[in-house]
């Protein structure tokens, strides 16, 4: 009896296994999602990275004097007018210039003493009628010239020593703002040495002043997109430090020459930031410029992922009408503008036709 039961179980197991393998070998029909074209607005965009800077920023430097910062009259963020005091510089005379000025005074003093002596002598002789007026006038002119030269030499020595003439209240030179604007940076402190700007030295910047009422975006754009740009096109700025706010700008400069940037050629662009009432941003913010290169309004589109690209042609799989099972035919189509996700369909497909859009999920 047990033997019979064992044989029956074995047969049932064998039959069940065969049935399972048979069912497994039957290929189920794959069901696909389908979709039709939809009308969308397509915008082809490019992104430029850069920063926010003032259009007009000036580095305030001593123009003709070197010395030590004795006093600072402003602080960062302060609004100043053209001519306002920025700092006071105490002059440290240049030894060569100082020696030259002192030598000039000594020579002028000698010439003056000699001219004065001659003048007094000839004046006495002219009074007594010994010499003619012509001779006395020559002596007088020489005396006056020597006097002027001595005064000029002394003034030059005073300026060389102190940076100012004796009539000033102190021997310090005041550095003033050359424009209206805001103090952005003061890279020096009281006691720091400063150097005058000249042909051989840029000089020491005492303060940076900028007009913050007019700011611009400076950035770089890839060479593949620069040909699509034009002066006056709108730009939308996103600033990482300013959340949930967009800033409108207008493109106003495209560099005529590109520069290598990490192996890629990029062109510099500038856009005027159009601040609305109540909007304010700081100089130096990093920013991204979103530029619409081309757009299509209300056109038929499909997702690019539904398309097949082969050689120079583009295809979609179109659902054949009727029938219990899904059947598709491959059809070439003509496309237009793409934003990287959706693509414009120009020809080869009608609005009601369905195309394959991926395997349907259970």
UniProtKB/TrEMBL annotation:
It comes from the Bacteria. GO terms for cellular component: efflux pump complex. This is HlyD family secretion protein. Gene3D superfamilies: 2.40.30.170, 2.40.50.100, 6.20.50.140, Helix hairpin bin (1.10.287.470). NCBIfam families: RND_mfp. InterPro entries: MdtA-like_BSH, RND_pump_MFP. Pfam families: BSH_RND (PF25917). It comes from Balneicella halophila. Belongs to the membrane fusion protein (MFP) (TC 8.A.1) family.
């Amino acid at each position: 009896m047990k033997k019979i039961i064992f044989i029956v179980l074995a047969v049932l197991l064998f039959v069940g296994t065969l049935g399972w393998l048979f069912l497994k070998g039957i290929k189920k029909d794959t069901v696909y999602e389908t979709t039709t074209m939809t009308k969308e607005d397509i915008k082809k965009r490019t992104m430029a990275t850069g920063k926010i800077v003032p259009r007009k920023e000036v580095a305030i430097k001593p123009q003709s004097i070197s010395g030590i910062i004795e006093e600072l009259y402003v602080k960062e963020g302060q609004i100043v007018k053209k001519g306002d005091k920025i700092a006071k510089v105490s002059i440290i005379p240049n030894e060569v210039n100082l020696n030259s000025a002192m030598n000039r005074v000594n020579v002028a003093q000698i010439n003056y003493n000699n001219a004065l002596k001659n003048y007094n002598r000839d004046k006495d002789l002219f009074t007594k009628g010994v010499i003619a007026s012509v001779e006395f006038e020559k002596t007088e002119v020489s005396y006056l010239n020597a006097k002027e030269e001595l005064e000029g030499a002394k003034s030059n020595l005073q300026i060389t020593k102190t940076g100012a003439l004796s009539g000033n209240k102190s021997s310090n030179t005041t550095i003033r703002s050359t424009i209206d604007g805001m103090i952005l940076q003061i890279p020096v402190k009281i006691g720091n040495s400063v150097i005058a700007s000249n042909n051989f030295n840029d000089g020491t910047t005492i303060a940076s002043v900028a007009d913050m009422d007019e700011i611009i975006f400076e950035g770089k754009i890839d060479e593949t997109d620069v040909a699509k740009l034009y002066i006056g096109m709108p730009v939308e700025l996103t600033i990482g430090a300013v959340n949930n706010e967009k800033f409108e700008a207008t493109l106003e400069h495209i560099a005529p020459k590109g520069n290598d940037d990490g192996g890629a050629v990029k062109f510099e662009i500038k856009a005027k930031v159009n601040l609305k009432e109540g909007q304010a941003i700081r100089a130096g913010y990093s920013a991204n410029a979103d530029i619409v290169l081309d757009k299509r309004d209300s056109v038929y589109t499909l997702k690019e992922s539904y398309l097949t690209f082969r050689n120079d042609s583009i295809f979609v799989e179109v659902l054949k009408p009727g029938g219990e099972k899904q059947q598709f035919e491959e059809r070439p189509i003509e496309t237009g503008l793409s934003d990287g996700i959706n693509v414009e369909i120009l020809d080869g497909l009608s609005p009601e036709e369905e195309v394959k859009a991926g395997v349907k999920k259970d």
